[in-house]
Specification:
The complex is a heterotrimer of chains A (316), B (427) and C (262). In chain A, 30% of the residues lie in helices and 15% in strands. Chain A is an alpha+beta fold. In chain A, a hairpin with a 5-residue loop joins strand 5 and strand 6. Chain B is mostly helical and 427 residues long. Chain B has one domain (23-407). Chain B is built from 15 helices and no strands. The longest helix of chain B is centred in the middle third of the chain and has 32 residues, at 246-277. Chain C is of the alpha+beta class and 262 residues long. Chain C has helices at 15-22, 26-39, 83-87, 141-148, 150-158, 180-183, 226-237, 240-247; strands at 73-76, 79-82, 127-129, 135-137, 164-165, 176-177. The longest helix of chain C is centred in the first third of the chain and has 14 residues, at 26-39. Residues 1-18, 209-219 and 238-262 of chain C have low confidence and may be disordered. The chains are: A alpha+beta (316), B mainly alpha (427), C alpha+beta (262). Chains in contact: A-B, A-C, B-C. The interface between A and C is large, with 102 and 96 residues.
Chain lengths: 316, 427, 262
Amino acid sequence: MSASEMNRRSFLRGGVGAAGGLAAFAAAVSPLKDYDPSELSIGKFLQKHYKEMTKEEMEAALKRIADDVERRFEVRPHLRDVKPMDGVEFAYALDIGRCIGCRKCVHACVVENNQSRSPEIQYIRVLEMPKGAIDVEKSNHYYDHEKVPAPDKSYMPVQCHQCANPPCCKVCPVEATWKEPDGIVVIDYDWCIGCRYCEAACPYWARRFNFAEPGIPKDEINPDMAYLSNRPRHKGVMEKCHFCLHRTREGRMPACLEVCPVGARKFGNVLDPDSEVHHILKTKRIFILKKDVGTLPRFFYYFDDGYGDSRKGTGR
Amino acid sequence: MKQEAREYLRFLWRCFRISFVGDWRYYSWMLLLTGVALLGLNAYCHQLVDGLAVTGMTDQVSWGLYIANFTFLVGMAAAAVMLVIPVYIYKNEELHDLVVFGELLAVAAIFMCLAFVTVDLGRPDRFVHLLLRFNWPISMLTWDVIVLNGYLLLNMHICGYLIYCAYRKRKPSRIFYIPFVFIAIFWAVSIHTVTAFLYSGLGGRPFWNSAVIAPRFLASAFAAGPAFIILTLQIIRRYTFYKVTDEALKLLKGIVTVAMAINMFLLVCEVFTEFYTQSSHVVSAQYLFFGLHGHSALVPWIWTAVVLNTVALVILLLPFSRSLPFINLACIMLIVGIWIEKGMGLIIPAFIPSPLGELVEYHPTINETLVCLGIWAFGLLCYTIFVRITIPVLSGRLTYDHRYRMEPDSAGLPPRDPASDSSPAHP
Amino acid sequence: MSSLNPSPRTTRPSPAVARGRFTWFLGPGFFLLAAWFLFGPDLAQVPIPERLEVTSNRISIKPLRGIVGEPPTIEIGGYRKTCMECHRIFLSDPPKTHDLKQHTHIRLDHGPLESCVDCHDLKDRDRLLTKEKEKIPFTRSSYLCAKCHERIGEDWKVGAHGKTQKAWDPKDPRMRRFECAECHNPHRPVEPAMQPFIPLPGPNTLRMTKPHGTPEGNHEVEILDPLEKALLIGEEKAGHGAAHDAGKPREGEPHPGKGEGR
């Protein structure tokens, strides 16, 4: 074998090896052809953090998002950026004794907030527990009775507690989640990088991750949307309860409250002495879930036990 | 200056060339690693398109194999310091020439760490947000980003400088690397401490919320890392002309033994506190060690780890471990044991049961496992190339004035001629 | 430790030949891998759980017993009529007893109340009448209820009892509080306001389909928790009521209210 012959053969071998390597690489990345290109638009890429956007930039972002929603769901949304109201700090109170575990709040929330139907994302979990004990370790999330309330059970719905000392905001590396002046902890879905550190940090298991592209039927889209609340999300970002801020910042009630058939849910401005929650926090017995973790939630459970007595005491 | 730059480029080119030169074992090994890395890349592309739903993670167990491997590899990276301390603080000469291998391991391990974090992200395309709005110093994850990348730069500088000096046949100027070596010592501790703080700072996860996590991390890292280096050195001296003394291996063995003993001790402390108190926080530990309400996916794993670690420690403590094959065995057991203990045993049980008491178990999917294997293969590929380049440079076979011939006659990695072992080949 | 240093192999093909032999498999190997990626099985399966359909009428925000109109109407023979449309003509005295000739679906069982005219105005049937002979419209029926149920009335006024809709700010004109009679049956309040409900489907998140173990089962384990013991004994002996009472005293932990009225 001459030297040139050998050189040629080794060159050939090298060439085939390199070509094979390139082919294998190309084939390996070939699934990327199915990647949705709209997720990589320049406008999206250049969009700033919520707190840094000027009015014009916000307008542009809203238009881009509305176009995106229209393209995906064939509905033109009423999309806006609702700012917190002055002198308002929200609080939520829930009468544990009254909740019957019908899960209407769960599903009203799903409909209102354009949550993914498949795979299913629900912000509210209703825990069924033996009556008398509030112990999440003994809770059942998957109760499936003919009728509720089941005898000897009590029910405790859990959703984002909108903590005043939120561990989720502390851990977020990119400040994609933060506490607003009215106490609502919000997420900028266009800023979240999807590391799920906040999900690990939350003691109330209130946060949900879009593991897959959310599936929402076109005819079930709620077009009443805000930037920080219920606009449709994409895969790979966190979401959670935001006290329906597109409703509550316009004076309306959260969807879970409006649907509650027993009136166990109370919502309002904690700074207003005439508000329902103010009255409840002052006069009722309050229970704070996982008080020991020091997150200072603004979601309270209460016991309305004056009720039975008053009924006996008067009216007969 | 221009001349210098040209030389440096030529050095990089030669490094590139030499990484394609080797014997059939080298080629098979590299083909295997490249193939597995490509498998992982392919699996990751599927994940990019379909989302993290292709992994076994759920909202309940929101971190899985990726973060488990990340945690383990941070430890491997930190372990390089266990070679540096004896050399630069205690002036141990046996290990002096081996420090570079430890630091190269650190570089490869950090590559893997960064890869594992990246694949865990839901939106890797938004990585740039880290630069635009960095929640430092509040978020522990930002600390981790800083310390990991800083450690990577430090080690790349130290290795790169020492190797390039050897290539240029210059004596390394102490001012250019000794300060960095000492910074790297503290930095190595910091990367693992910060990673431990990542977990122990979460009040909502009682399983992690323990002060002993950081020391445990360090101890296990200082056992697994040097153990890996022992294995690497055994391979190097088996298949190359590079000299590794028995004394160096014995010294490393000593380090592994002590670190492992401390690690086991801390584990016992943790387990005692959890189980003797029997507070409601014990559920995760109970799930891990004994299973809970019929759910026991992690039980076989953790007991395997406990057995492997215990046997490895016993082997290391007993006199017959002075024979090197036993050390190899102990090292393999120990690496596997610590990998399980820190991955499956520390990351996943913290999520089970969920903060609302739900028992959802975690089972990695094939796709997820392929991504992990791919990253491991990629890391080993990097490390193999690093070592492949370093050995001829450090032994003076590849220098600026002596072109290590790429021609076939000098191609095979091991010129098994004993004469060449004793005298570096200079024509 | 010379045994660890391998003895050099004596017969060894020349490196050139060796290299030629051992690199031929690289290219085909890579091509095989490429073929596997393109035509191999898809290992990345996305589990899509079964969708839980909930029709919107099951999450209606209407009050349980319907909205009380002003004036209230009743359906007779397919027509909606106000009370006075008939009672302008039929000035029947409602009987003092509980058996009615008309409106037979109404059965009065409301504590000491014995007659319809305890609350209804005999002359103006579209109005209610308090003990103080104060005429009030049906839309303000809660005012009448509060005459007897004072403390609940107080709670209701500030929103601690009952349900408020539309707006959370008490100064907001949109705010609407459900009247007592929109949830409770004023004629038979002894029967709980809430009949048991069919619950909506539970969570069905990713990789979750059916109940994953019932945490409270496992009775084979010896029960230490006094609370749990109490609950169990109650169940065996006296049924649910006793179990509930036994469950009450648990120190340091408030227990849920009785949840009456359902």
